[in-house]
Design brief:
Elements (H helix, E strand, L loop, with lengths): L2 H116 L7 H33 L3 H17 L10
Length: about 190
């Protein structure tokens, strides 16, 4: 065979090979490559979406933390204001109580002095003088004890020890009723 015939046969075989490759081999390869490119694009898209979702979630978490911090600070401030208000109320009540006790003691001392003057001074019985001196001293001691208890009650209230302050308040009430003969000042 001549070289020209060989070249023509080789061209025909090459053309058949190209046609076979393009018809049966090339489409599955391009389909696999396209599918792989699509999966890579989807993976990159999902990664970008996940990154954006993470940023949104981080922002939401930071907002919630900030809101929680603000709420905690607000509650703490409210608690401090309430405690201060309770202390101030206790001080006002104690001042009123002290004023009432002092007024009652002055009235009792005036009544005692008037009774003493009506009896003619010291009287003829030495025992009566001692008895009057003891009754005049007992309210003074009670007043001193009440002032001590109120000071201690205020200290407990300032330290937010309300149970101790309430116990001392009750003790002051008891002293006022028993030693000074004053009616109770608490309603209830």
């Amino acid at each position: 065979m001549s070289i020209t015939g060989t070249l023509i046969v080789q061209m025909i075989v090459f053309a058949i090979l190209v046609w076979f490759t393009m018809k049966f081999v090339w489409p599955p390869i391009t389909a696999a490559l396209d599918e792989r490119a699509k999966k890579i694009a989807e993976g990159l898209s999902a990664a970008d979406k996940a990154k954006a979702d993470l940023a949104v979630a981080n922002k939401r978490v930071e907002e919630q933390l900030s809101a929680a911090r603000d709420d905690a600070a607000k509650r703490l401030a409210d608690a401090e204001r309430l405690a201060q208000s309770m202390v101030e109320d206790a001080k006002v009540r104690a001042s009123e109580e002290a004023a009432k006790i002092i007024a009652a003691a002055k009235a009792e001392a005036g009544a005692s002095a008037a009774t003493k003057g009506a009896k003619g001074g010291r009287g003829s019985r030495p025992g009566a003088v001692v008895a009057e001196g003891v009754t005049a001293l007992a309210p003074e001691q009670a007043l001193r004890r009440i002032k001590q208890l109120e000071a201690e009650m205020f200290r407990h209230a300032r330290n937010l020890e309300f149970e101790d302050a309430a116990r001392l308040r009750d003790e002051v009430e008891r002293l006022k009723r028993s030693a000074l003969g004053l009616p109770g000042t608490r309603a209830g």
